[in-house]
Amino acid sequence: MNQKVKVVARDDGAIISVNGIDIVITVKPSISVEEKPLFAPAPVKHILESIESALEEYREDIEIREETDKITVKLKGYLGREKFAAIASIIKGLCGEYISAGKESRFIILKEK
Question: Taking the domains of the chain in order of start, what are their residue ranges?
Answer without folding.
Answer: 1-30, 44-110
